[in-house]
Specification:
Elements lengths: L1 E5 L5 H8 L10 E3 L5 H6 L2 E3 L1 H10 L4 H11 L4 E5 L10 H20 L2 E6 L2 E4 L2
Parallel strand pairs: 1-4, 1-5, 2-3, 3-4
Antiparallel strand pairs: 5-6
Helix pairs in contact: 3-5, 4-5
Length: about 130
């Protein structure tokens, strides 16, 4: 597994495609966290915007940990992108605070199980693991 973290719109998907040796035409092999079914993530080479899967799971009152375990067991070679959400003002809304915390915990768990972790800023990757 490889994990790419960073702020929004920093080039995480482009870098994931590069790591996977895929072209933008191969975008159908990318699971989008805000729209694709959970099963698509378990079968895709790249999971983009993993934090959006976390948000959807929380809204459905499901445990993101179970989803992560499923990915670890069934898609161990996947490349995952996730936004850093903990740098900034703490949200006033209780759900948004819970989401931010859950996304951070998901990133920690994914990083622990990843062979490589990259932080991307302004399109520049830095390998941190």
């Amino acid at each position: 597994m490889k994990l790419i973290i960073g702020g929004a719109w920093q080039g995480k998907l482009s870098y994931a495609l590069q790591l996977a040796d895929m072209e933008t035409d191969d975008i159908k092999q990318v699971a989008e966290g805000d729209s694709d079914p959970y099963q698509v993530a378990i079968e895709s080479r790249i999971i983009h915007n993993f934090h959006e899967y976390v948000k959807r799971l929380l809204r459905e009152e499901q445990d993101p940990e179970e989803f992560i375990r499923n990915i670890l067991e069934n898609n161990p070679e996947v490349i995952i992108t996730i936004n850093e959400l903990g740098c900034g003002i703490v949200p006033e809304d209780p759900f948004d605070r819970r989401f931010r915390e859950s996304a951070g915990r998901a990133a920690v768990k994914l990083a622990k199980h990843s062979g490589e972790v990259y932080r991307l800023v302004c399109g520049i990757p830095a390998r941190i693991k």
